[in-house]
Automatic annotation (TrEMBL):
The keyword Flavoprotein does not apply. PROSITE patterns: ARGE_DAPE_CPG2_1. It comes from Microbacterium flavum. The lineage of its organism: Bacteria, Bacillati, Actinomycetota, Actinomycetes, Micrococcales. One of its GO terms (molecular function) is hydrolase activity. It comes from the Bacteria. This is Zn-dependent hydrolase. Homodimer. Belongs to the peptidase M20 family.
Amino acid sequence: MTAASLLRAAPDAVATAARRVMARCEELARVSADTASIERVYLSPEHARVNRLAAEWMRELGMRTWQDAAGNQVGRIGDPAAPALMLGSHLDTVLDAGRYDGIAGVLIALEVVRLLRVPSGDDGWTVPLPFAIEVVAFSDEEGTRFGKALLGSSAVAGTWNDAWWDLADADGVSLRRAFLEFGLDPGRVGEAARRPDELVGYLEAHIEQGPELDRAGEPLAVVSSIASARRFQLVVEGEARHAGGTPYDMRRDALLGASEAALAVERICSAEHHIVGTVGRFEAFPGAVNVIPGEVQFSLDLRGEFDGERDRVWDALARDLDDIMGRRGLRWRAREVHSAAAVFCAPLLQDVVAGGIRATLPTRSEAPPVIFSRAGHDGMALGAIADVGMLFLRNPDGVSHHPDEAVSAGDVAHGIRALAEAVLLRGTEPA
Ligand code: HGY
Ligand code: MN
Ligand code: MN
């Protein structure tokens, strides 16, 4: 089931591009708030440094570059009047991150531009397509600093919510203050918004953040949909008391209640087919060894293939927490800090990604794998204004959000070619 290859590139050009992606992933990994690990969060000095690096690499390709009103770094090549096919991913990271989550997608997109661009005659460059190409390095896909994910891509999608300005980081710095300190104007964040008619679609290459491709021995896959997500900050309140003098029948231990809640997340979610719930942050107060915890604050990240299933599981969890806290004489409350509906990748973009994979791996007989992404991506926000398509690259053992995250140069080369072929295939369709 091969698809004709539309890419005219010297055989070793793609291998050279893959080596450049791997080297630049190492270079970007060194731009971190922590010398012992990779940490690059929204509106940080590290964010500013990688934006400057990305802009330099975009200009080298003959792209026009700008940083938008939400701190996303953008490059554009092609007809200034035409709508754009947007490629990209994110350059922000989680804490103690890997080198490739998001980063590889931005760099692969730049290599696709390098392979597709042609001289425009006025000492510049263009692309032989019925649309322009934009590469966006989104500034906050993870939500590491303020808890709310997809801030950069939400601004581009025009779905920014002014309630977010009061979100604060671990040091109590509000999003509004961080904007100002980064040199951005909160009052102008709306200028980052793009109109649907400006885009012909959004295509993102990303490492798979799970083991499916590795287990199947597949280098690439088409993504069918991106998981719907909800994130909560929960608080359990009991009573801080002396760890020695307080008999059990008088204790209202918030940590034990919150611990039962965390186990309920695992019990209830694991009984469902496509639902995962994770407690990633868990903190007891006052946090002294000889004081019964009077309060616990913890996070919940809840995802599912379909919004309705995910919401039904949240309702079941809430009922379970009522039982647990009632039995223990505790109180609990939850603040929802992030919610993103499932986004189903557009059939046309799924088709061009599948065609790109077939043109890249011509010896494959059957259709490329199609998998649902349990990880969130900027496409969840972009889905509000554009068709979304995603290409997954194999990630050995599926390790991600961890320093051992990996991808092979060979699979990156496959990914570069497949994305380039997909862009060319999209160019054979009406813009
Ligand atoms: O959390 C996620 O799924 C993504 O990596 N931000
Ligand atoms: Mn990512
Ligand atoms: Mn991530």
